[in-house]
Design goal:
Layout: H1 2-28, H2 30-48, H3 53-83, H4 89-121
Helix pairs in contact: 2-3, 3-4
Bound molecules: adenosine-5'-triphosphate.
GO cellular component, one term: plasma membrane
Pfam families: DAGK_prokar
Protein name: Diacylglycerol kinase
Amino acid sequence: MQKKESFISNRLKSVGYAFNGMFILIQTEASIKIQLVIAVFITMAGFYFNISTTEWMIQIGMIGLVMSIEGINTAIEYLSDFVHPENDQKIGLIKDVAAGAVFIASIVAVIVAGIIYLPKML
Ligand SMILES: Nc1ncnc2c1ncn2[C@@H]1O[C@H](COP(=O)(O)OP(=O)(O)OP(=O)(O)O)[C@@H](O)[C@H]1O
C-alpha cells in the first residue's frame, strides 16, 4: 500500500515537472510561440471550413507532432549550450540535425494542411 502511494505521488510529481517544462518552453521559445499562433489559426480554419472528425484528428496530431519535436529540439539546444557553450563544429551539426527534425515535421504539416484545405478553397 505504501509502495502504491509513493508510485502515484511520484507520477504526479513527474506530471508537475512536465507541466513546468511546457510552460518554460512556451514562455522562452520564440519558435513555439509562432507555432502556437499558427495552431490557433489552423484551429479557427478547422471550424470555419467545418472539417471532418478524421481531419480534426490528423490536424491535432500534426500540431502535437510539430510542437513536441520543437520541445525536444529546444532541450537539445539547452543541453548543447550547457555541455559546450563555446562555438564548436560538432555542436553546430547536432543543433542543425535537431532543427532539421522540426523542419521535416513542419513540411509534413504544411502538406497535410494543403490536402485538407486546398480542395475546400478551390
Ligand atoms: N555552439 C555552437 N557552435 C557552432 N554552431 C552553433 C553553436 N550554437 C549555434 N550554432 C549554429 O547556429 C544555429 C542556431 O542555433 P541556436 O542555438 O541559436 O538555435 P535557435 O536559433 O534558437 O533555433 P530555434 O529557432 O530552433 O530555437 C545552429 O543550428 C548551429 O548551426
